[in-house]
Amino acid sequence: MSTIIEIDNLSKAYDSGTKALSGVSMNIEEGEIIALLGPNGAGKTTLISIICGLVVPTGGTVRVGGHDIRTDWRAARRMIGLVPQEIALEPFEKVINSVRFTRGLYGEKPDDGYIEQVLRSLALWEKRDAATRELSGGMKRRVLIAKALAHRPKVLFLDEPTAGVDVALRREMWQVVEQLRRDGVTIILTTHYLEEAEEMADRIGVINKGQLLLVKPKDELMGEFGGKTLTIELDSTLTEIPAGLADRGLVLATDGRSLRYDYDTRAERTGIARLLGDLSANGITVRDVSTRQSSLEEVFMSLVDDRKSEDAA
What we know:
By secondary structure, the protein is α/β, with parallel strands linked by helices. It has two domains: 3-223, 3-Layer(aba) Sandwich (Rossmann fold), CATH 3.40.50; 227-293, Alpha-Beta Plaits. The chain is 34% helix and 28% strand. Strand 7 (155-159), helix 6 and strand 8 (186-190) form a beta-alpha-beta unit. Helix 3 (95-105) runs parallel beside helix 5 (137-149). The protein is elongated. This is ABC-2 type transport system ATP-binding protein. Residues 5-234 form the ABC transporter domain.
């Protein structure tokens, strides 16, 4: 894959002294889905706004498809579609006319066939003649996506795209996103639904306090930072962990019917085989065992908490 977005040492500071971004550098590959995660105020929206030409950076450079966003902004902007967090639509405008208007803003010739294709893909075709004020919040957000796709962008930014959307509509939207990726569109999203990022993204970027903590392939991130939990179901109830196992990091369930053992996936040895042998040696019969991988949310929270600890030190 070739690089479609190049970000080099990007920074943004406001007159108040607030540093929204500090030394952010990353490359985004053509056709990938990358999720930007971070707490509120971390700098995600500022980063997107700079790339889209809505905010002027203090320092650094950004190129989209080889076009500098400041010196060649028109060519760069034509490659980008943006779905913002806020729903801002003309309330009395018909859905289809709103999408047509956005296409015209980019200097594209009318193409009602393509507009129909976009509206159908977002389940908006039956609402094409409805005024946007008549739509539900979820449907309005779909209109925003249709407007962002109106000029056939190569890069699509989705800033909290499923906020306020019910579960069924959210899943349908992600089917559209997956189809866009198959069509070669590069997608950068921010989301608070971390399970979506875990399911959809090829790579994960974590931003906190204006700094890019890391950018890694999702599977690599989960393997490096994710732990696993072994749940050991017991054949009989325990009232306490035997003294001989007190230093093994076991946690007894409140009902005494199971033990939890957390271990690091990066460790050369997990210690599970020895643990099961020690349980047997202590007269504890195991009924069943199961493992669970840490979720992306748990990995994300551990990264942010680690950075908070470093700052406090």
